[in-house]
Predict the structure.
Amino acid sequence: MNDIEKARRFLSRDPIRYSYMMGMLRDHTQLLMDGPPDAVMLRRANVISVTGTLSSVRSLLRTMEPGEYRFHSLDPVAFRAVSELFLEVDDGPTWMFRYPFKKTFAPEPSVVPLEPEDAQEICKYWHGGSRDAVPYIRYRIEDGPAYGIRTEGELIAWSLTHYITDHAMCLGFLHVKDPWRGKGYAVAITKTLINHALKAGQVPVVDIYKDNHPSLELARKFGFREIGENHWLSCRVP
């Protein structure tokens, strides 16, 4: 068994909880392991995700060269190890949820697929409007599924996915412009993405910042069930 298969088996203990790392593993990411393995660390450029026992996660982190890194989807054990060893720049704690049901919803006729050109507009409302995010948003639209609602040609609401694995589809980017809020558009788009995931045999999941109360309320309204805590943070390795 090669290292990728060993890592996949390790993460497959809970393929929904560790679906972000399963997606990274699929995307030709640098792989490091400690023990039989007892920990797995994945790296793509300066983005890192790691999980395992506390001692083994520490061992992997100590191999890192100095620099600035972005740690994604850290479970509480990995977050503890990173916080102990490195200078934390910021932390975005999230709750991860999974959708537990199998029944699909009736189609929403107002919801239509997004176009790659929509990335420019979506970027204005995501992560402070950084233009650096446009290529990523375009990629997520092209990789699909990605849906929106338009009125008189204007894109007024949308949602995409952050990653898709054999087991899970992570919904994200959900946004409704201010003048059109409270009209059920977020619900309509979310239903469409849930349908897409279920028909593909994937579990819909969401990872929501703890201070994003509207999205947390929407997830709970749909019946999403909390399955864990994650942390998304920047760190400086001395």
Remarks:
- The mean pLDDT is 94.
- The chain has two domains: 3-97+231-237, 112-222.
- The chain has eight helices and eleven strands.
